From TrEMBL:
Keyword annotations of the record: Hydrolase, Metal-binding, Nucleotide metabolism, Zinc
Pfam families according to UniProt: A_deaminase
Gene Ontology molecular function: any one: adenosine deaminase activity
GO biological process: adenosine catabolic process; hypoxanthine salvage; inosine biosynthetic process; nucleotide metabolic process; purine ribonucleoside monophosphate biosynthetic process
Name of the protein in question: Adenosine deaminase
Annotated InterPro entries: A_deaminase, A_deaminase_dom, Ado/ade_deaminase, Metal_Hydrolase
Catalysed reaction, written as an equation: 2'-deoxyadenosine + H2O + H(+) = 2'-deoxyinosine + NH4(+); adenosine + H2O + H(+) = inosine + NH4(+)
Residues flagged as site, Important for catalytic activity: H226
Co-factor remark: Binds 1 zinc ion per subunit.
Domain of life the protein comes from: Bacteria
Length: 362
């Protein structure tokens, strides 16, 4: 029997790829927009959630990203940023997430007069409040994103290093991929490496192997945001055997984590459907696959939904879900001892408890 969404909700989950401005509650977008008189395409929060999901369901990353104009617009004060950050933690707790790295681009939150440091502090305060109030333990860290079409990556990389002992775990670049290769930001990545800092790069989502190759071999990315197009370097022969090209081999041999976001890829056209999503093959080939939400608002999703969809499409059970979760925890930008403690004290016991037959089941 397939795992029910209710069981999936209860297993401990780890989330490495989730955008703060992509996970705002529709009611919060509506309330904050009313306060600042920002015009929304629809007013009713119920319709607004649907509007985001429909508009994002465009088959194109560029059009998907246009919907962020509305969430970013309402996140321009310290109060709004802290609120969105606190609610994010509440929603993750309800979804059974025990560790999360949440990313956003500080440079997009300066229109109300905040400085970059004030933006990071507001998000830190919101996460802290959310963690303190949580009924089940959760650890949440920030990843600071630089927008790949802009030219502020060096500044944001410095910001990530300045805040690394105050809730910031790493750095990322995001935004339209085609036309904006990661090597545009090489100075920022080289700086981070010299600083022994962590970073991931969105690569292999709307553009193919050259983007993944640059991210890893030129820029030194520790993880790949999406990375789905690594499938282009894998061929299946007539007998069904997979042959990996040199880049795909490197990614698998080096255990480079793939931050896969199945529903987001279906919306942007990077995958035709969940059933046809490369995550099935990459999991079978034992790449270091992790499961993520990307944008809970735009994709109308949650960790429970992403994993439940994989359960339905590929028949995964608790073993596979635990494998994804431990893969993610091993790949987190958190110190080794803290990762190990979460694996041994939270994740493994959590799965073991659900695997045991309940009273009356025997
Ligand atoms: O899947 C994605 N690919 C590339 N960029 C993205 C994706 N989702 C969100 N963003 C971009 O990242 C910014 C900071 O959070 C968002 O404002 C959005 O423009
Ligand atoms: Zn993303």
């Amino acid at each position: 029997m397939l795992l029910s969404p209710d069981v999936v909700r209860r297993v401990p989950k780890v989330l490495l790829h989730d955008h703060l401005d992509g996970g705002v509650r529709p009611e919060t977008v509506a309330e904050l927009a009313a306060e600042i008189r920002h015009d929304l395409p629809v007013d009713d929060p119920a319709d607004l959630g649907r509007w985001f999901a429909d508009a994002a369901d465009s088959g194109s990353l560029v059009r998907y990203l246009e919907t962020f104009d509305h969430t970013v617009a309402v996140m321009q004060t310290a109060e709004a940023l802290s609120r969105v950050a606190r609610e994010c933690v509440e929603d993750l707790v309800a979804d059974g997430v025990i560790y999360a790295e949440i990313r956003y681009a500080p440079e997009q939150h300066l229109e109300g007069g905040l400085t970059l440091d004030e933006v990071v502090e507001a998000v830190r305060a919101g996460f802290e409040e959310g963690m303190q109030a949580a009924t089940t333990p959760i650890v949440v860290r920030q990843l600071l994103t630089a927008m790949r079409h802009q030219a502020r990556s060096m500044e944001i990389a410095r910001l990530a290093v300045d805040w690394r002992d105050r809730g910031v775990a790493g750095f990322d670049i995001a935004g339209a991929e085609d036309g904006y290769p990661p090597t545009r930001h090489l100075d920022a990545f080289e700086y981070l490496q010299r600083e022994n800092a962590h970073f991931t790069i969105h690569a292999g989502e709307a553009f193919g192997l050259p983007s993944i190759w640059q991210a890893i071999q030129w820029c030194g990315a520790e993880r790949l945001g999406h990375g789905v197009r690594i499938i282009d370097d894998i061929t299946i022969d007539d007998d069904g055997n997979a042959k990996l090209g040199r880049l795909a081999s490197y990614v698998r041999d080096m255990r480079i984590p793939l931050e896969m976001c199945p529903w987001s890829n279906v919306q942007t056209g990077a995958a035709a459907s969940i059933e046809e999503h490369p995550i099935g093959l990459l999991t079978a080939l034992r790449f270091r696959v992790t499961v993520n939400t990307d944008n809970r608002l735009m994709s109308g999703t949650s960790m429970t939904r992403e994993m439940s969809s994989l359960v339905e499409a590929f028949g995964y059970g608790l073993d596979e879900l635990q494998w994804f979760t431990i893969n993610a925890m091993k790949s987190a930008f958190l110190p080794f001892d803290e990762r190990l403690a979460l694996i041994n004290e939270v994740i493994k016991p959590g799965y073991a408890a659900l695997a045991e037959p309940g009273p009356g089941a025997r």
